[in-house]
Amino acid sequence: MIDGIEVESWSTEEICPTCGLKGLELRHLVYKKDEGFELFIQVCPKCGFKEHEFMDVLQRGYVKYTIHVKRAEDYNTLIYRSPSGLITIPELGIEITPTSRTLPRITTIEGFMTEIRDRLLALFSPEEINSKIEKLNEALKGKLPITFVLEDKSGSSWVKPKEGTLVEKIR
Ligand SMILES: [Zn+2]
Q1: In what order do the strands lie in the sheet with 94-96?
Q2: Residue scoring higher pLDDT (154 or 96)
């Protein structure tokens, strides 16, 4: 926290458009004074490339992103899930509700789904969840189109789709 500004950062698998390095860093800045605003910045740790284009003036209130995941590229859609983000994948009967311990997190749809699979495998016996895991694996292989829904009552969650990925946004 620097003078009313909170900064979080993550390294991603994104490729730098300038030098080609795989591993752009994403920073999320929240400025809490006055009206407040939020900013997403992508930074290359190697060549210093910076992209600010994801500036989003904080509009408090509900937001819903519906991402249609059909192609392999769609799985690379970058997702910022704020602590109040609710994730649902209706085709797989999956719902991840926020709790008081939910931390802000950024990863791709593929990353979230891999985590969900690992968590299911850790919590249940294979017999209990076999069909769910099978469907999840099918989806991850691109054989089953899914809808990845991210809802957030705080309006802070954010999605950066790949070119050609279909995303509907409701505010
Ligand atoms: Zn670079």
Answers
A1: 94-96, 85-89, 146-152, 63-69, 166-170
A2: 96
pTM value is: 0.81
Q: What is the dihedral sign for C-alpha 92, 97, 103, 106?
A: positive
Ligand 1 geometric centre to CA of 118 (Å):
32
pLDDT of residue 53: 61
Give residue 68 CA to ligand 1 midpoint distance, Å: 30
Cα of 59 from ligand 1 centre, angstroms: 31
Report the CATH fold assignment for 59-171: Jelly Rolls (2.60.120)
Tokens 């016996």 belong to residue: 125
CA 147 / ligand 1 centre spacing (Å):
32
> Domain map of the chain by residue range?
1-58, 59-171
Give the angle subtended at the CA of 170 by the CAs of 91 and 65, to the nearest 5°. Answer: 40
pLDDT recorded at residue 149: 98
